């Protein structure tokens, strides 16, 4: 809260402008092809080395496995429901220690929550709401693999309609697998009017980098939902992570957007969205929608929802389709 | 600032935090603890204390912020009670595992359900295995002093564990007693500014706290370190308490011995109702009965040796648990029985449950306990645990049951 805001940072235009230096080193216990880790790796290049990652239980908890961590900054594992409160404690303590002259200002760090969708959308919603309400100056990085990934792909409230998970299996009575729609966390967070809020994709590194650069100039809550394609849980070959990350955006299923003090801008709008089937097909979690027979109703429902979302976007922004 | 004044237990707790010159107070209200954080909020608003006061969204968040603040190197204070302590429970284990020092005051209140506001110790004793140290105060004076001792203990590099200081709801929280506040300058000498010795968060000094471990061997190592730290705390408490006595003239041991030198019979009690026990001891002493009281002050680490040495050779001992482990009995009774297991001169041990939900322990009930102690001393079998409940209370409860439409034999 007491940190002065930085001057506007230069936004980048090409991949070559992304820092070469790595702040998350390789050799971690995270699954090969993890889209979330790639997004965090890119984010860390903007965040820099003076960071503390405050972690909620999830896949990324295994990043810091004693005695190793891949980070150049610090790490604090909290609990599944309270990482944002942990960020509050660190931020407050550093602020008061600096104010009391007990800590030199150059020893300050960026306080970054790292949490999966399971804790973020579910258990931690209350503590995060508290931190947003208090206007805490912190970062929140949610790697959204749309399930409780670390426990073996069970449904979270980020799981999209139609995806099969271990707790939303396909059966005669439940042909679509997950029958709830994905919780709209972006809007829930946006209602708190954070300083900055954005969705990012590991396959759109320039967009991601610019969003983190913009957030770095702002004081207050800076929130990110990173699309995190998950070969282990979504059941596809790890080398296809980049393809699915790209297709999620190109089909319009995952919208790249930001909200500065509540005002929403879509940062990438394809001229024509590709059919959602291109994204769904090939992922094991959606196989039941195609085999042994096509579930036309479910496929239509997914496409209709995406179309409705973008129709609304075009209507409110007045942009031509 | 005057040094002697009438303070409630809650105000005494707030003064403890103020004298400890804490940096950070994440807070959340719960009765009967609210007065502590209200006072600290007022002092913070007035600029009387330099600490940052932040109202959190729950005890779960509050305790996480408290531990994280300590991990960042701040001296942290907070307080809760009853259901609030339980709501923050998983965080107690987490931050004890971080090995960060902070002081958490718990104002004991019985647990739901039924929901109530008055004290017993099921809340605080549920936290006995979390890794926190526990100090149980009997008086408002002891609350202030225990908080200062608690910080010294928590921040000692041989301990590095958070401490719970317990006081009873209503019987202490809202009761004014004369309290001598130690002068701030003298406190600053006894408790110098906090210099973190654990891994703490700094831009130029990366660290990891709460990292995952794969396999039981490293897990066992870290858990064993906590056990060692608790054991160290027994010796450290005595050293710190000695120093406190020299500086401030008030002495606190792991256990308090009251009229125990020649006592044949012993009551074991803790917290504020121990005062009632002491009054009963004095009444019996006036009748020439050799009886005394052992008050448990430090409950974690458990001072088993001191207890065993004090109780061995007595004619009979009654442990009055102000708590109930349903299906078992009193929580402290088996701990004391364990402490005495290796004693050859083991006295008969009577388990008594009293004071649940703040229920009074009357003179008559103490008489009943003594009657059973005498029987136990001559080798008679006494059914235990004994639940203290008077005829009058029984009749009143029956009336309530009738109003509720529950005709039943109590």
Please name the defining characteristics of this protein.
heterodimer; A: 321 residues; alpha/beta; 8-stranded mixed sheet; 8 strands; globular; B: 410 residues; 6-stranded mixed sheet; 5-stranded mixed sheet; 14 helices; 16 strands; 42% helix; 17% strand
Q: Please, could you describe this protein's structure?
A:
The complex is a heterodimer of chains A (321) and B (410). Chain A is an alpha/beta fold and 321 residues long. Chain A has helices spanning 35-47, 83-99, 117-123, 125-133, 185-190, 205-216, 231-234, 241-250, 277-280, 296-317; strands spanning 51-55, 74-77, 110-116, 138-144, 196-200, 221-227, 256-260, 263-268. In chain A, α6 (205-216) links the parallel β5 (196-200) and β6 (221-227). Chain B is globular, with a radius of gyration of 22 Å. Chain B is an alpha/beta fold and 410 residues long. In chain B, β15 (349-353), α13 and β16 form a beta-alpha-beta unit. The mean pLDDT of chain B is 96. In chain B, α1 packs across α2. Chains A and B meet through β1, β2, α2 and α4 of A and α3, α5 and β9 of B.
Helix share of residues of chain A? Answer: 25-40%
- Going across the major beta sheet of chain B, what is the strand order? 10-12-11-14-15-16
Distance between the termini of chain A: 41 Å
Which term fits the overall shape of chain A? globular
**H/E element sequence of chain A:** HEEHEHHEHEHEHHEEHH
Radius of gyration of chain A: 19 Å
Element layout with pairings:
The complex is a heterodimer of chains A (321) and B (410).
Chain A: H1 35-47, E1 51-55, E2 74-77, H2 83-99, E3 110-116, H3 117-123, H4 125-133, E4 138-144, H5 185-190, E5 196-200, H6 205-216, E6 221-227, H7 231-234, H8 241-250, E7 256-260, E8 263-268, H9 277-280, H10 296-317
Helix pairs in contact in A: 1-6, 2-4, 3-4
Chain B: E1 4-7, H1 9-19, E2 24-27, H2 34-46, E3 52-55, H3 59-71, E4 77-80, H4 82-87, H5 89-98, E5 103-108, H6 122-126, E6 133-136, H7 140-155, E7 163-168, E8 177-180, H8 184-190, E9 208-209, H9 216-248, E10 255-258, E11 265-270, H10 274-286, E12 291-296, E13 298-300, H11 304-311, E14 316-321, H12 332-340, E15 349-353, H13 363-377, E16 386-387, H14 391-403
Helix pairs in contact in B: 1-2, 1-7, 3-5, 7-9, 11-12
